[in-house]
Amino acid sequence: MGNSNIVINCNQCEFCDEFAGGRANSFAVRYANEIASRTILEQDGFRAMPSIGQIVPGYLLLVPNYHYRAFADMSLEELNAAEGLKTGLTEQMRSTYGDCLFFEHGARTPDSGGCGISHAHLHIVPFPAEKDPVEELVRAFPVEEVSNLLDLKRIQPGKSYLYYESVRGERYVFYPPFIPSQYIRRLLAEALGIQTWDWRRCGREDRLLNTLSQTSRLRDVVWR
Q1: CA 109, 190, 83, 200 torsion: positive or negative?
Q2: Is position 142 within any domain?
Q3: I need a labelling partner for 190 at 20 to 30 A (CA). Which of 7, 132, 160, 224 fits?
Q4: Residue 82 belongs to a domain with what CATH number?
Q5: What 3-state DSSP class applies to 67?
């Protein structure tokens, strides 16, 4: 599948270093003496893993092994695989964590903001539908509706974007000129009345280890 099965170790990339078993990454700094890996599923050139900064239990990231800046830079074949994995993961997780929302900040230029990690990653966040801040986003930024992740290929090359799928399944691409670091994480935390949203300030989290334990069964789940 194109380059999707290749791990490229990019200088200064948190995820590339982590996937290569390095120690110069945020996960290793917190957990290297306790667990070797946070990957719960690796398939079709992607891996799923608990996010550092578990705003809610079950908060996962879907990350390509290959170093892309954004999902929109992937091939249609890779996006189709990501769509299938996203659907399969959330179906398996629903009985434990409930419904999820999804987002990706496709920060393809340095001046568009972002969390400081330039490796593409899709957030999978269990979340109550009544708290979903999607309407706030619709009011705030230029927006278009999309059908699935494959529609990201319609975005102009090099243009930054925000992909967001609500708990109710509405899918949007927003075009903010700039958004602050971890903007959506902060919105979600505020909607739940949680003050801790900055993953960089998190130390060792029992919640991450619990998510890792509870979702470990997904290693044996394969979607075709």
Answers
A1: positive
A2: yes
A3: 160
A4: 3.30.428.10
A5: coil
